[in-house]
Amino acid sequence: MSRYAHPAGSRHAEILPEDNPPLPPKSLNELDPQVWPATARRTDGELAVGGVGVRELAATHGTPLFVMDEEDFRGRARDFRTAFSDADVYYAGKALLTKAVARWVAEEGLKLDVSSGGELAVALAAGFPAERIGMHGNNKSTAELHRAVETGVGRVIIDSFDEIERLEAVAAGLDARPKVLIRVTTGVEAHTHEFVATAHDDQKFGFAMSTGAAADAVRRVLDAQHLDLVGLHSHIGSQIFDTSGFEVAARRVARFLAGVHEDLGITLAELDLGGGLGIAYTSGDDPLDPKTIAESLTSIVRRECEEGGLPMPRIAVEPGRAIAGPAGITLYEVGTVKDVEGIRTYVSVDGGMSDNIRTALYGSEYTSQLVSRESDAEPMLSRLVGKHCESGDIIVHDLYLPADLRPGDLVAVAATGAYCYSMASNYNHLPRPAMVAVRDGSTRVIVRRENEEDLLRLDVG
Ligand SMILES: Cc1ncc(COP(=O)(O)O)c(C=O)c1O
Ligand SMILES: N[C@@H](CCCC[NH3+])C(=O)O
Predict the structure, then answer these.
(1) Is the domain of 232 the same as that of 270?
(2) Does the Cβ of 233 fall within 6 Å of ligand 1?
(3) Of 10, 123, 231, 459, which is the most exposed, with the fewest CB atoms less than 10 Å away?
(4) What positions are modified (N6-(pyridoxal phosphate)lysine) (predicted)?
């Protein structure tokens, strides 16, 4: 079970107790299909994804390298579309957004959630239809709102009283009337890391239902002449494994919808229940499947609406991680193997917290293996670390790698498709890795590797 999955408080940068290492796995070469991308296979010992061997990928494109299994990504997008066939599925671009990814999303018939002007710009550059985009953000600037309204995004999710005024002014200036949803917080304590729980009252997102702010926001938006209120939005957090948090939130927000109907005589047609479905980072993780969650949410909303005497709204969801996460791996080359006698072996690779900040930030767990070959050597208790000047620059806290691991070997970390590239940095002036999409034996660079020129491009001093 991932540490991340527990409401463990601020466990970021915490080092696991040394006396409690995990048990070695049965095999160091076996790929758990729950954790690795759908097309991942070992052929003659070497890992291939999308029919392309990792040695060829590393030789041609260098390391670290993000490798996206296009078939896996598209398959998961399709699974959501099928499960939510009577609803709207907005892929949450914050998990991973490139022009190619935006096109996959469009081709698979999903809509797109963007949470900044930058994400909107990437989507538009990819030719993503503006009317299928929803715009999020707890502090959207006037310029961002202007761009969203001017380009005709399908909806804006309002997050603050200031934004109501700002968006009304922007819309009036453009003589437009954008569709808007109000983001409410339901008071649900999601079972996840506190940094990514978003529905309790003491945090920055949305309008609290418990304090009356949400009801106030509804009234103010209704008074705004240039805003077309179409629904409510609730997102409880991210990397969640149990249905109960989603269910309680769905019930509360559907009741609130019924309250709006009763008090104001207004029927809001849309109910967006956000994203947040967890994925398997390790074999112990047990993710929910889209079909189960779709059935449960739909029946809860239906029941509440029947009881409140209002028509069933159109449901929307916003999965990000559950579509992009399992489709991606990161390929690294081992640089040094350092045995700290009696404790563990530190395996340093050519990336680190600049391409995966999640371990340092949330104490996340990952699965990693030697992938350029297989090995029958003894399992060696290891810590996979990067090349940054931080002792917290850890990619995988505790794992077993084969004792014959040596510099030049390739290791892969699974389930890095979401929130790794999108949260990458240039710390220590490391160029950000390239990203390739692999499918049916062919490889396409979808984001090129940064180089020294890129690192110096903005430094005009
Ligand atoms: C409003 C909103 N929608 C969707 C998501 C996507 O979440 P996830 O990637 O966990 O599905 C997030 C991130 O937590 C979010 O804040
Ligand atoms: N970035 C986070 C999740 C935040 C989701 C966006 N609201 C992660 O890596 O898990």
Answers:
(1) yes
(2) no
(3) 459
(4) 94
Look at residue 9 and tell me whether its pLDDT is greater than 60. no
- The answer, yes or no, to whether any atom of ligand 1 lies below 6 A from the CB of 345, is no
* In a shared domain, residues 215 and 293: yes
The model's pLDDT over 254-263, given as tens digits with 9 standing for 90+, comes to 999 999 999 9
Q: Is residue 20 part of a domain?
A: no
Question: Which of 419, 423, 425 maximizes ligand 2 atoms within 8 Å of its Cβ, making it the mutation to test the pocket?
Answer: 419
Q: Which residue, by CA, sits nearest to atom 4 of ligand 1?
A: 275
Which protein residue's CA is at the shortest distance from atom 4 of ligand 2?
A: 196
Give per-residue pLDDT as tens, 431-449.
Answer: 999 999 999 999 999 999 9
Closest CA to 394 of 409, 406, 384: 384
Confidence of residue 2 (pLDDT cuts 50, 70, 90): very low
Contact between 433 and 352 (Cβ < 8 Å): no
The single-letter code of the amino acid at 125 is: A
Do 224 and 268 fall within a single domain?
A: yes
Is 389 considered catalytic here?
yes
Of 17, 18, 85, 389, catalytic: 389
pTM: 0.94
pLDDT digits (tens, 9 = 90+) for 139-167: 999 999 999 999 999 999 999 999 999 99
Do residues 64 and 79 both lie within one domain? no
200 and 128 belong to one structural domain: yes
Domain, as residue range, for 424: 28-69+327-457
Which of 301, 324, 347 represents a domain boundary (last residue)?
Answer: 324
> pLDDT by residue (tens digit) across 388-442?
999 999 999 999 999 999 999 999 999 999 999 999 999 999 999 999 999 999 9
Residues 293 and 347 in one domain: no
Over residues 252-280, the mean pLDDT reads 94
